[in-house]
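[09:14] KT: can someone run the structure on this one? pasting the chain below
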Amino acid sequence: MKLGIKVAINDHSINDLERTNADFAEVWYNANTPDGYTDLFSYLKKYAPHSGLHFWGALPNDALATIAYPDATIAKESMALIKNTIEIAAQNKFAYVNIHPGTRSLIKLDFKTVTFTVLSEPKPILQCEPIFLEHATILTEYAKQNGVVLTIESVPQRTANQWRTKGHRNEVLDLGELPISSLMKAIANGVWFANDFGHTAASCESLNAKDIWTMLYDVSKHYAYKTKLVHIGFLTKPFNRTDFHDHMDNQLLQTDRSVPNYEQLILLVKLFPNRDDVFALVEPKNDHAKNYFLAKTLLEHAGVLT
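[09:31] RB: done, structure tokens below
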């Protein structure tokens, strides 16, 4: 596994890259502000050429882009943003673009406060899933034509509002995310998998820790061969189907109050032996450099760091 670090347009990302000397970076990429990434991209092309873009973008109606919502205008605008992101990745010689499956509701996100607003009721899964599958296939082929890998990331069933700024996991929102079963169908159709361990765990129907672990390991093992990107995440109580982006030195990670816990993380990453085509990183709230080195220790312990 290749170990990288999360970066964005801020005052510390280039410093984090210099401190870690990471092989690659995953850029939190806002497709609505492409001109803001010039300096960061110039650095990455020189020092971390195998980097990737994690797509985010808003539509003219302020809703987040989604390739699952049954509206022709929403679909056209969303696909255009993602295709443009793929083209930008290709122009900069980046390795991949990572997207989410898309929501069945229209969602607005305040990018500064990480506050979600649900703008519409969720459409039925049976209506949205075929739309998602069609668009996922089109985008996968478009990325291939541009020499880029498109990955689609597992998502939690629910979202905790302002999770990055305030950490209120009790403020649970239903954004109308597609179930992981829809993503599995896309993978079976040829889509590459981005397995966020915390998100996959938070997509489990059960709230029981043993059930969550069993589901997470089974999904990760079964789809390891189709996995190109891993986000090394975990959940802690309450297990309420929301994600949890905390630091890898959280003491709960060493206990059964975390799923996966540290030993289970080792079992998960061991599913990728001799896989230098798999990118891995941590997505903490902050202090990315520290978490990079903690992840490096984990991968070294598991014997999978390439």
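[09:33] KT: thanks! Residues 125-145 form the longest helix (21 residues).
[09:34] RB: yep, looked fine to me
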